[in-house]
Amino acid sequence: MTDTAATIQAARHGDAAARAAVARGTTTSPELLTFLAADRAAEVRQAVAANAGTPPAAARLLASDADAAVRRVLARRIAALAPSLGPGLGPGAQDRMARISAGTLAMLVEDAAVEVRAAIAAVVRDMPDAPRALILRLARDTAMPVAEPVIRLSPLLSDADLLALIADPPAPATRRAVARRPALSEVLSDAIVETTDTPAIAALLANPSAAIREATLDRLVENAGNHSSWQAALVRRARLPAGAARALGEMVADHLLGVLAARPDLPPGLAETLRGRVTARMAQPDDARAEAALFAAARAGDRGLLTEHLAEAAGVTVARVEAALALRSGRAIAGLCHSAGWSAALAAEVQAVLGGLSPAEVVRPTAEGGWSLGEAELQWQAELLEGLPA
């Protein structure tokens, strides 16, 4: 490759946009790319990091760049080369240039910035020929944006690898990631259940392709009365044994009755019983029925349903509700619930469930069940939210 005089002039004396254009060039020489790897502008260094023609030695320097965005771009490109870098993260590479690239990848996979490590995981997560050492390192990352894509999708993880993650999870959500893996085996499902990790078991039950022994499923149904998230997943499982369906019919939360009653595979008589309970619930006054369903959703931790109903009832977008919740202000959430026409008691539940507020932070109703905040304060809080993203 030979750089033209104009290219060299742009690289040395052009503005940042001109220098970045040279750095992106497919015919730019390795020497000029190495020169631009030390450019003062991050956008230029990002372009060098993304260029397939950048020499491995220059890429190695960029792996220590002060700008995480530069390292993220580099990580994405180097990760794509992983299958050619040998079985490990360094010494197995076949030639000097590959060894340098393998060393660069080893640096990036230990980068302090989650976004850099996550960029690698996004590229190699389903590679059948990625270095196994790299996959195992990413799967044991404590940051789930890094570990989860690999845990869920890598064909290189064996049942033994996954059992090790279940037994000794590097992060609280590691087991949940395993539970969401497609086509999970019965052995792995049993191992997750044995941990008594409630969120992981809920994720397992919600995984339609997870193989779960009938005996294991019956055992989970027996204990689902104390776990509304399990109930929500169980009533939607594609295959539900008759005994499990009957047991669920006795305990399922009201807002899930309709879902269970609509299943086409219920034992004889159970569907009619459940539909009768649904009809009885529908016979309640509309406001009472709606509020009861929302209380049930709050107790079940159904954030999606609460958020959607709050947005609809308050006449705002879901984005505005989420922006209000991000304020972590009990008064702001109470004002939004008041605008929706919800009771002070329901607003307290919403503050705890959607807002994640502690009991001390929640605006609670009076002893009579009314609002502890005045009407003017509630309206003012609602008006303040109008300036939030729509």
Automatic annotation (TrEMBL):
<dbReference type="Pfam" id="PF10098">
    <property type="entry name" value="DUF2336"/>
</dbReference>
<dbReference type="InterPro" id="IPR016024">
    <property type="entry name" value="ARM-type_fold"/>
</dbReference>
<protein>
    <submittedName>
        <fullName>DUF2336 domain-containing protein</fullName>
    </submittedName>
</protein>
<dbReference type="InterPro" id="IPR011989">
    <property type="entry name" value="ARM-like"/>
</dbReference>
<dbReference type="InterPro" id="IPR019285">
    <property type="entry name" value="DUF2336"/>
</dbReference>
